[in-house]
From TrEMBL:
One of its GO terms (cellular component) is nucleus. Keywords: ATP-binding, Kinase, Nucleotide-binding, Transferase. One of its GO terms (molecular function) is protein kinase activity. The keyword Nucleus does not apply. InterPro entries: CC_SR_Kinase (IPR050339), Kinase-like_dom_sf (IPR011009), Prot_kinase_dom (IPR000719), Ser/Thr_kinase_AS (IPR008271). The keyword Transferase applies. It comes from the Eukaryota. Residues 3-224 form the Protein kinase domain. Belongs to the protein kinase superfamily. Ser/Thr protein kinase family. GCN2 subfamily. This is Protein kinase domain-containing protein.
Amino acid sequence: MKIDLNMAAAEGNSVKSIVVANVYQVESKAGGHVYAIKQIELLKEERNDVLINREVSILQTLNHVNVVRYDAAWREHGTPDVELDKVYIMMDYCDYNLQQVYDIITSVYKRKTHETICPVSYFIKLTLVEGILVGLGYLHDMGIMHRDIKQNNILVKQDGDCWTVKLCDFGLAKVEKSGSQHTQSVGTVSYKAPEVKHGGEYNHLADVFSLGIMLMQFDVNVNK
């Protein structure tokens, strides 16, 4: 069964939306291309500048079909003691994240077939997971740990019957340098590898653990 995500969403299917930052959809006056602009307010801490600079620096080095495409970044200075500085990161726009795709697929299928289990889930999973694995493999080949793999950080773009997944949100990403030790416990608690959760040494394989947790949730979400 073919499912058009845009059509399904327009039909009023329930879609969960979890906002982790202010993200705006904008359209270029020249050419009409649609972008997503992520707005980040900078707290008065030096560490925030370090994280933002790292995120932009990493995005500038990436060029892959399964990674969201970076276009530009800029900073606006706020009023001292009144308004915080803001950083804007402009990226290619994608219509959905992976969680929203799950919700649309299950809602449409169950409504049209009156079945409680969605048997197309395995085909959908293979189609989407292949792109996630390729994108994650690219990051690791580039020596980059994402460190926050979860459903809301995987975007999906639909072009006809073609679905393309794109990894996004590199706010916690870090370059994995040879011989360096990573012990900082970052990421979303329910997706963390044990070594990350307990402050031990870890490497890019922690991303693979997070992906495994995400895939387990996929089965629960689609077949609930």
